[in-house]
Amino acid sequence: MTSSESSRLSRRTLLRTTAAAGAGAAATVMHPGSAAAAPAIPAGHEQPSTAKQDKGPIPSPATYFGTPIGTEGYLAQWSKMVPYFELIGARSDRVRYEEIGKTTRGYPYVLLTISSPKNLANLDKLVANNARLADPRGLSEAEAKQLATKSVPFYYVQAGIHSTEVGNSQAAVEWAYRLATEKSDYIEKILDNLVILLQPCQNPDGLVLVNDYFAATAGTSYARTYPDLYNKYTGHDDNRDWIMLTQVESKYNVSILNKYRPHVFQDSHGAGSSAPRLFTPPYLSPYDPNIDTILVQQTDTVGLAMQRGMTVAGMKGNGWGSEYDYWSPSRQYCVYHGAARILTEAASASNLAYPQVGTKPLGQQTTDINFIEPYDSNTWTLRDIIDWVSQAFYSGLENVAYDTYNWLYNSYRVGLKAVTRTSPYAYVIPAGQRDPQAVQDALEIFHLGAVEISQAQTAFTADGKQYPAGSYIIYLQQPYAGFAKTLLEVQEYPQLLQYPGGPPQRPYDTTAQTLPMLLGFEADLVTTSFTTRTKRLSSVKPPAVTTPSAPPRTGAYAIGPESYGVFRIVAALQKKKIPTFRAAAQFTDGGRTFPAGTFLVPPSSAARELLQAQSRATGIPVFTLRTVPAVAGAQLKQGTRIGLLKPPDNMPSGWLMWTFEQYGVDYSVVSASDYANLADTYDVIIMPEGVSKNSIVNGLNPKNYPADWAWAFGVGTTGWNQLHDFVTGGGTLVSYGSGTSTATSLLGLPLTSALPGGSSSDFYCPGSLLSQEFDTDNPVAWGLPAKNPVWFVSDDAYKLSDTTTYPVEVVAKYPDSGEQLQSGWLIGGESLNGAVNGLSWTVGKGYVVTFGSEIGFRTWNRSEQRVLFNAAYHGPSTKLTAGQFQRLGK
């Protein structure tokens, strides 16, 4: 049974009771053709009970918040929502309230576990059953079937990750109340047959910022939408962190998925005002082949059940099979861990919580097989959003609750296919790589992602290649091997046509996530079985390093530039004001060759103590030089002052903030008030993707925002010219992505685009890894391999139109010919042949570095990102002759 007929409750009645749960006494839903015409509620399916329970009554949302949820111009705030969820948990025997932890800004990160009292009393056993079915090694099919008959599926629904998509978290208030209180066969059957994990807000920090700002600006002339990132670092990218797992909220989310192993993960979002009233799966092609086919079909099943539920309820304007594909793991960790991902996207209303009103019916008005009934009203409200997403939610619950055996047994089948894979056999990450930080970061991702990691205790041979003891092995006969495989392999996103003979279908999102290329390490796919003695790792630790002996007075400590993690050490040296130098050429000492860019630190007790601690923490070795080499070099400026241009709502600068803070870098966001004295405040200014002349000159309009936002107000042409003078007067400017176009405008750089300016059918790259050749003798590229892929996402590549305007050196370029695509998807790659990407310039007395690609993309491309650190520290450094360097600046 897969429909609500089995509960003798029609979807129209379901919708009516949903509205009643939110509105208290009000029972009419104000949109035509649906619940307004609903029949009377049958006997036994009365309104949610408000009678006093053993632990006290649970007030309706309308009573508790003082107004019905979904009221025009009203958004419930987290400061009142959390106590309400706590109250429900305290007074209902169907709900457990849990604070998983604190968010980045210190707010509660909340989970409600909702089911029948019997299931909650038996929750540990149900969780154990899930774990056993998900990892069926040693479990017979008969035992699996027996477990499937006596357990229940888990349905995890999450709202509010994108904070301006306000309807879902508001709806979650009503969901929690209704599931906790309603005395009906319909709700009780769902609770008997399911455990519901309700996360009313995945991004509480953003809900506080957006909803509190909305409330604070009520009755003013100010704009009502919070103007900046609605997460301290990531903003709208907060659901693109589910492969790197950098944010505390991402880690909480995967901890829930790893603990409960839900069968469905409903990811509730909002879309633009002209989108379908509600999008659900099925998705567009393609799907990542590392997603199990059973999960692909189950995703389609739940999505279409939601569509059917809305159609039966008279809710029009809904669609599926458009825009979104089933590819990028950065937004769907769950599907590599046994859960179908159900993305819902509700059309937005006006100004967050006010009606969207048009002159004709809203949205698409032509029918299609995946859009069968156009919306027939010219008005769309917050209440409509809540009703639509609620109908979809309950239809999703029904689909799983009325088919529990198949959902549980299919979990076993998904796990069985994973653990009985015969080929490929494993990935091997060889020991002793050039960048221990890259290996460490990758292993930590896999460990957080519940991937089993083994370490070889002896040397071994696999597929004809010899590997040393200490190498890491990820066997692919394990439940969540798909997560590791999709992150380790090269992506080949298929070239699909919009129609036969037509242009290619553009991917929805990024198409590559190959960790070895992004981080800079080796991982070998082994196709056939091999034997070696291994140890399963229960934790991930940096490799052991040997503390070097103290150098003689003529020597120094040396740290190679090969690891991007070395800049954690550099930042620590900067904070302690310990002199730090870099060799500008390769040299040899004690039989060991050190590359250009090697860091040298004069011997001192402070240096020894710091380097010992940092080396142990990172696994990056420190060496002792007997004699400082006689090569040219540079002395880093102590306390290098880094300024970050951060327009409001600019995610690339937000990600850089996170990176700088993790590395301990001394930086500040450049404020409008800083422009009058830039040279006195900063040595370096970073101009990331998304920084435009308009964002600098005009900024936020003071008429639309309170004085608290003065840091982001425009600085006019005066400030624009002051930024120019900062550079030409001796400052350092580092730009990338569209920031390079802004730098070109600011300084008159002789750059022209090498890419065709026509249709995206001529050239398009939505987020892929491309070939790149680096000049590793250039200070900007110190420490990189000569060939290191770069991240490209709708960026630009250039031709130098004049080499005499400013002294300029090419740091990085695309190969003159051959395959430009390394992983992902690209059309028109031949336009990149020979194009330049990274350049270093002398502009007046200043130092400028520009990259057309995004060298700081979401912390993903860390191997490439070191060029940003190289440039930022090299620009303000003091350049030394060979003699000066040998004396370490003395």
Q: Cα distance, first to last residue?
A: 83 Å
Q: In CATH's first tier, which class of the largest domain applies? A: Alpha Beta
In percent, how much strand structure appears in the residues? 15-25%
Helix content: 25-40%
In the sheet with the most strands, the strands line up as 1-2-4-3-5-10-6-8
Low-confidence runs: 1-53
**At the third CATH level, what is the topology name of the largest domain?**
Aminopeptidase
Give the helix tally: 25
* CATH architecture classification name of the largest domain: 3-Layer(aba) Sandwich
Rg calc: 29 Å
CATH H level, superfamily name of the largest domain:
Zn peptidases
Note the overall shape. Answer: globular
DSSP summary, beta strand count = 40
Instruction: Provide the residue-averaged pLDDT.
Output: 93
- Helix/strand/pairing class, anyone? alpha+beta
Count of domains: 4
Strand count, sense and barrel status of the largest sheet are: 8 strands, mixed
Q: In words, what does this structure look like?
A:
- There is one protein chain.
- By secondary structure, the chain is an alpha+beta fold.
- It folds into 4 domains: 405 residues, 3-Layer(aba) Sandwich (Aminopeptidase), CATH 3.40.630.10; 108 residues, no CATH class; 76 residues, Alpha-Beta Plaits, CATH 3.30.70; 239 residues, 3-Layer(aba) Sandwich (Rossmann fold).
- The chain is built from 25 helices and 40 strands.
- The strands form 10 sheets. It has an 8-stranded mixed beta sheet, sandwiched between helices. Strands 28-27-29-30-39-38-36-33 form an 8-stranded mixed beta sheet, sandwiched between helices.
- Strand 22 and strand 23 form a beta hairpin.
- The protein is globular and about 85 Å long.
- The N terminus is likely disordered.
